Amino acid sequence: MAEKGLMSDQDMERALVRIAHEILERNKGAQNLVLVGMQTRGVPLASRLATTIKQLEGIAVPVGSLDISLYRDDLSSLNLKPVVQRTEVPTDVTAKHIILVDDVFYTGRSIRAAMDAIMDLGRPKTIQLAVLVDRGHRELPIRADYVGKNIPTATDEEVKVYVREVDGEDKVTIFSPNKGGPSDGDC
Amino acid sequence: METVESTTHGAIISGAFSPPSLGVWRHRHVLDLDDFSKDEVGLVFEIADAMSEVLSREVKQVPTLRGKTIVTMFYEASTRTRASFELAAKSLSAGTISLDAAKSSVSKGESLVDNLRTIQALGADVIVMRHPQSGAPYLATQYLDTAVINAGDGWHAHPSQALLDIYTVRRHLDDLSKLRIAIIGDIMHSRVARSNIWGMNIMGATVVLCGPPTLMPRGLNEFIERCQLSSVVVEPKLESALEGADVIMLLRLQLERQQSGLLPSIREYIQRYQLTERRLSLAKPYALVMHPGPVNEGIEVSPEIAHGAQSVIEEQVSNGVAIRMALLYLVAGGKSR
Questions:
Q1: CATH fold of B17-158+319-332, please?
Q2: CB of B259 within 8 Å of any CB in chain A?
Q3: Cβ–Cβ of B10/A155 closer than 8 Å?
Q4: Closest partner residue to B4 among A74, A86, A88, by Cβ?
Q5: Hey, of A74, A76, A92, A173, which one would you mutate to test binding to chain B, going by the most B CBs within 10 A of its CB?
Q6: Segment A33-71, tens digit of pLDDT
Q7: ipTM of this predicted structure
Q8: Domain at B159-254+262-312, CATH homologous superfamily
Q9: Residues B11-46, buried b or exposed e (16+ Cβ, 10 A)?
Q10: CA gap B293, B314 in Å, rounded
Q11: Is the pTM of this model over 0.95?
Q12: Minimal Cα distance from B60: which residue of A?
């Protein structure tokens, strides 16, 4: 596998600030917003968006975390089931504008699961989706409202987002399989 | 493979950054804790934390095990364990069938194995089984492809109870390896005590066993030695067992034991072993009082303590649902074999 850089820490920072502006513009301010990060790396990204919004508007938007393991549609075909992490949404979601935050937007299946999970917590006014990277290959009729960067990919490539809170650094990379190489799988 | 979302997939591929992985989970069945690793217990607890959040919601249900069938087969009376497993299954949207063995074809002479095979043929994904004979669930696993969870077998084991007990302790007291846990009462007939001994030992806690000499298992010291349970201590004197304890786990006195001559009188048991205020004061000031239930109030424990500030008896019951949801999640998902 060859790893290639796609976004630097500064690229990520700029993308998140832009997304924060777009969220405020679209929702006409920060009233009734709730940022919900999807485990694992969506959670720190959601906190960073909240920090930027606080600087811009002076309003502390509640930040929650969401684990979708219990809502996945592929549980019965996975040999290794995912560890269920914490879901913690600190406020009632009913009548709020929920901004789901994830790192990589791919098939759309985890967003489908996330929407089901949010709906189980209440009846939000709207659910919007913010992603750092959209790599295409949707399998469901779902789109993102806020995109940090569109990256065309092949399905055998892997897009990986590193965030300093989890991985110690900020960057986005893409792994491409070496055609015919022997290293497949030993990463 | 494309249904695996890139976020999770990426984490698996890069390994080092992923949260505790399910890779530590090696069990197809849950029969006892003697073959559990510390990581596996930790994994069950981590998933139980997430399940607790589900149970705290207004709508206490997630679609995780939709389409799976969980059968509870109880060859021995039970109310709370059975209700707890069924509630856990329903909260995960699994279909449940509960079979009362007394009313099933067992009473018409069908053998245990045939009985279980029938249930499997009906399409059960998990069988939750309680049986008066030790080892019955182990026998079941030799004949079935279905996952089996032991909900209590004879005097032998009750792993989900021990997990919920340890989980309850961990929610109050941080480092299990520094704790002194006194298990008081009828150790001999207690599958709860046996599974807790394994579980507490895995977590590194010191376990002190105390009870009337006639209700202590024979050969206990040899057993402790043979299995190298260095942190398990037998203490005949109640006062010494309670001294400095962080957790006091009381066992139910099975009243029918009096008839079998193992217990001179209930009154003597009360005098010598009941947890009273005075005896409780020997333990640490914050010591937790636990009981697997059903409690004989006024026998193992005074009513004031059973409902007092240090009692976590009711919490044990509610934690039980989360633990059983975690166990069902771990054994019921995945490909059918």
A1: Rossmann fold (3.40.50)
A2: no
A3: no
A4: A74
A5: A76
A6: 999 999 889 999 999 999 999 999 999 999 999 999 999
A7: 0.79
A8: Aspartate/ornithine carbamoyltransferase (3.40.50.1370)
A9: bbbbeebbeeebeebebebbbbbeebeeebbbbbbb
A10: 9
A11: no
A12: A120
